Amino acid sequence: MRAVVTGGAGFIGSTLxxxxxxxxxxxxxxxxxxxxxxxxxxxxxxxxxxxxxxELDVRSSDIPAALASAAPDVVFHLAxxxxxxxxxxxxxxxxxVNVLGGLNVIEGARLAGARKVVVASSGGxxxxxxxxxxxxxxxxxxxxxxxxYGVAKKVIDDYLYAFRFLHGLNYVALALAxxxxxxxxxxxxxxxxxxxxxxxxxxxxxxxxGDGEQTRDFVFVDDVVxxxxxxxxxxxxxxxxxxxxxxxxxxxxxxxxxVAAGVTTEATYEPARTGELARSALNPGxxxxxxxxxxxxxxxxxxLATLNWFREQA
Length: 314
Prior knowledge:
By secondary structure, the protein is an alpha/beta fold. It contains ten helices and 13 strands. The two termini are 36 Å apart.
């Protein structure tokens, strides 16, 4: 398989690139390096002719030509402005990257003759603020996002549906929960794991905003990458939740990571952040049926792997 990975120098994208190369596929990474790092591609760059890198912004008019040159069978679109807070402060910028940039990639994939596009959507935002009794949320839940970031992700899902109807371009949209793991930086939906890891290993105190009982669905990056790889050959015009279905409070997350780091110091608490969701979890059952996917990594094991990676970097 010839694959293009947009955002392939990022946390999830580079892990996906390594997995694809390990399985013998040819990969072209497109990334503008605004948040991605070439160091994440250190292993990939030893793959010879199987790997190529193009430094390019997804908003660029050169995207269609870059995709045509790569001649991909599958385009994995992960490039994004991924910070919800930035989307609130700069909604036009968010739309430029996530809507216009995403549409540019989808149209480029169509023109390049790709058979499928697999897109990173956002299970933490497209469903808005679900009622507690609706958790874990499934794909039938209404989509009323309450952030520009969530709106942009929903719009791209709608464009994918239209392109499949109009042009026969197949797709799978993966509504990701809070992804964490090695190579993560402190920005994005699950940045708290990276923040805790860095501060715990440096012997610095950790802050928790609010009472710490707010919950998230933390899913390990290797499990998420497995879903992307499966989606290349499974699923046909579907949105699939990629999460664990388990709510984990920030307090529980801190305790698990502190134990793994050998730290006994308690976190300090600060006022809650305005607009933060109280609870979040995704039902992964449909991904099991469509992709044969299920999460494999327990939080304790994933937290330890993440801490070990940060320890090696230090």
